[in-house]
Amino acid sequence: MSENNFDVVVIGSGPGGYVAAIRAAQLGLKTACVEKDPTLGGTCLNVGCIPSKALLQASEEYAHAGKALKRHGVMVENLQLDLPVMMGHKDKVVGDLTKGIAHLFDKNDISRITGLGALGAAGEVIVTDGSGAKTVLNTKSTIIATGSASASLPGIEVDEKRIVSSTGALALDQVPGHLVVIGAGYIGLEMASVWGRLGAKITVIEFLDRIVPGMDGELATNFQKMLRRQKMKFKLSTKVTGAELTENGVALTMEPVEGGAAETLEADVVLVAVGRKPYTEGLGLEQAGVKTDGGGRIEVNEHFETSTAGVYAIGDVIAGPMLAHKAEDEGVAAAEIIAGQKSHVNYDAIPGVVYTHPELASVGQTEEQLKEAGIDYNAGSFPFIANGRARAMSATDGFVKVLADAKSDRILGVHIMGADAGTIIAEAVLAIELGASAEDLARTCHAHPTLNEALKEAALDVDERAIHV
């Protein structure tokens, strides 16, 4: 039937999928998007990026009102937490945004199809709805954008009540007395921040000898100091070997990675945040001849096309950081390539942000990566304590670091710990995208007083001529 014939069928409606569908439709391609869940937006919008940021913002305001406002002469008496209202705000934000994507689909004449999508014969996508009925979609091109799912630990069963994934951590009905977080990456530390601000005792267990793996080492070290000041406790180089439900919570057993005596830790709630894995279950990849790597990710070429002609893949199911904005850029690029245009994604200009307090933001290469690659570089840094706006905000924790090639002065990496780091990093991303030098950034006029001036000063410090320190 003609209504089941499409130019592009996108499987998955997360940030990569829905953006790919919209861009394909903008380019005049008849487009459908298949989604297994009743709402659009995928993990990021429904149980990931958006609800977590709503809780991070609300919990930060609660903590700010209780501790920091008095520095500014704002006195708050009888401060109370209404957790159901906070959760209601989170749910409303999610609901409004999912409805917004549905509106964008209608606006761009994208066919929304609910069900499990899988690859069939060449040029076919088979959709199975909740009743088991199957519909065959004929398509010239297919984009797989099914995202990722929480990774698990052997022997630890997530029940989303006392042992939770990030999904369960977003929906606790009370503040736990003691929250133990397994994994010191982005997700674990963000959720630890939410519940720590609301009154929970926090212990973070990490297999590696450092937190936020992949971030610049100096940034990570200073970040851990800041989190310790917020009363987070850390057990690094530690592996969890088991979890047993008790009458009042969970008893975790753990031991040093290098070997040693085991110990037990009691918790009210345990969050398993040990990373994510590509979600490719039921896609029919093997039958369709789509190759995957050793980690279960789909292999693609520089045009995002898989080993099967006409089948493309983007986002968390392919190599690279599992970030919503990375998936969005890949979705746009894949749609444009399918439409016959030239497009690419600059992976050196993909920022990463941890939305704790202070925030962490990074783009480009770290000092460790530059040293390992044998690249000669110059580094400049500037502390927020010397920034006028940060002083006025009582947000003086952290610093900005700029790394530039020793010969060309081209910016290779920027790393920020501080208030609004996730916003400030956008300027650094643009600088790297345009191939700017530290000198270019240093000579760019910045409004005063702003937090972004710290980035300019760090760029000046690459040449050892910072003004305000």
Based on the model shown, name its key terms:
FAD/NAD(P)-binding domain, alpha/beta, 25% strand, seven-stranded mixed β-sheet, five-stranded parallel β-sheet, Enolase-like, domain 1, 469 residues, 3 domains, globular
CATH-derived topology of the largest domain: FAD/NAD(P)-binding domain
The tally of strands reads 22
- Average of per-residue pLDDT values: 97
Number of helices: 14
CATH class of the largest domain: Alpha Beta
The assigned CATH architecture of the largest domain is: 3-Layer(bba) Sandwich
* Domains (count): 3
Q: Overall 3D geometry?
A: globular
SS content category: alpha/beta
| Poorly predicted runs of 5 or more residues | none
Q: State the CATH superfamily name of the largest domain.
A: FAD/NAD(P)-binding domain
Could you give the distance between the termini? 70 Å
The helix content, as a percent range, equals 25-40%
Task: Give a short account of the largest sheet.
Answer: 7 strands, mixed
Radius of gyration: 24 Å
How much of the residues is beta strand, in percent?
15-25%
In short:
The chain is α/β, with parallel strands linked by helices.
Topology:
Blueprint: E1 5-11, H1 15-26, E2 31-35, H2 42-47, H3 49-68, H4 83-107, E3 111-114, E4 116-119, E5 124-128, E6 134-144, E7 148-150, E8 163-164, H5 166-169, E9 178-182, H6 186-197, E10 201-205, H7 217-229, E11 232-235, E12 238-245, E13 250-256, E14 263-267, E15 269-272, E16 276-278, H8 285-288, E17 311-313, H9 324-338, E18 352-354, E19 359-364, H10 367-373, E20 377-383, H11 388-393, E21 399-405, E22 411-418, H12 421-433, H13 438-442, H14 453-462
Parallel strand pairs: 1-2, 1-6, 2-3, 6-17, 8-15, 9-10, 9-15, 10-11
Antiparallel strand pairs: 4-5, 5-6, 7-16, 12-13, 13-14, 18-19, 19-22, 20-21, 21-22
Helix pairs in contact: 1-9, 3-4, 3-6
